Prior knowledge:
alpha/beta, Rossmann fold, Arc Repressor Mutant, subunit A, two-stranded antiparallel sheet, 42% helix, globular, transcription regulation, sequence-specific DNA binding, DJ-1/PfpI, Homeodomain-like_sf, transcription
Amino acid sequence: MPSKPNAPQRVPQSIHEGHLVVCIGFDGAMSLDIAGPLQVFSTANEMRMRQGMRPWYRTQLAAGNDLVVTTSSGLRMLADVRWSELAPLPYNSTVLVPGGDGVDQVRHDTALREWLVRTEPRVARMGSVCSGALVLAGSGLLDGHCATTHWCRVDEMRQRHPDISVDSDRLHTFDADDPVYGHLFTSAGVTAGIDLALALVEADLGRATALATARQLVMFMRRPGGQAQFSPLLTPETTHAPRLAQLLDWIPGQIGSDLSVERLAEQACLPPRTLARVFHKELGTTPAKYVERVRVEAASALLGQRQASVATVARLCGFGHPENLRRSFHRHLAVSPQAFAERFGSG
C-alpha cells in the first residue's frame, strides 16, 4: 500500500459491550453484498452463544426515505431504520456500503454523501463492499488512500478519482493493525465482502471465532485480504487466441514441470515473443507472472489443507527451493507460506 495520511482523531471507545453493524440499503444494491457480511456477523454471534457467551454484534439495514429496498436480483428487503435517523451512531459501530447497479444513482445522493462524511470520524469503522467503494470515493473519504473495488469498475474508479490509489489485485484493504486501514477500508466484488466480514470478526473476537464462523458457513478457508480478486485458473477463454486458451488449460496440470517461456511457446506452437504479446493483450500480464500466480494458488490450496510441509509444497508446485516459494508468497499474499498455513489452514 502507498504511504497513508495521518489517522483522524477519534472519540473515546464506548464502554458498552458489543458492536453495531449498519449496512446501507438502496434500490439496485446487490443482495449478497448486504446479506453475505450480515450473515457472517450473525453466525459469529451463534458461535459465541454455543460457548455460553452473549452475542457481540447487532446488525441493522438502514435505507433512505423508503424502507423497502429492492435489490438488483429483485429480492425486496425491509430496512430497520432510515440512515438519516441514525445520528449520532455509537463509536463502537461499523458502517458498510454495498455495491450493485444502484450505485450509479445513489453515489449522486448528496444527503447520503454528507451523512457518510459526518459519520465517518464518529464510528470505529467504515467500509464498502464491491462497487460501494464508488460511493465512498464520491464522498471524498478515500482521497489519499489505497482502495479496491470490483475488478470491472477499477478503470472507472481510477479515471474518476485520480487521488485514490486503486489496487485491482486485492480482496480487501482492511488491516486491523493499521490506524487508517483499520478504520476506513474497501473490498472487492461480491463474495469478497464475506472475506472482509470474517477479517472484522477476527479483529473483534479472535482467530478461533473467525475460523469457527467460516467453517459453519462451509467456506474452504478465510482468504487474506492481499489475495488476488479472481483465480488465474478461472481466466476465460478467448475466441481471438484459441492457442492461448488451450495453453491455459494445460498449465495447471504441469505446475511441477518446466514452465519457462520457451516451454510455453513450444506447447502453444508460437514464437516466444509472439506468445508474450498475446499474453499481454489477452491477460494483461507476462507468461512468467501468470505461471507464478497459478503456482501460488496451487501452493495456497495445499498449505490450506495442512497435509504437506512447506518444502514439499515448494517442490510439488514447481518452486524448487522453499525460499522461492516464500518470495512468491510475500509478493502475492504479503505473508510467508508457514504463516499462511498457520493462519488460514483448515486444520
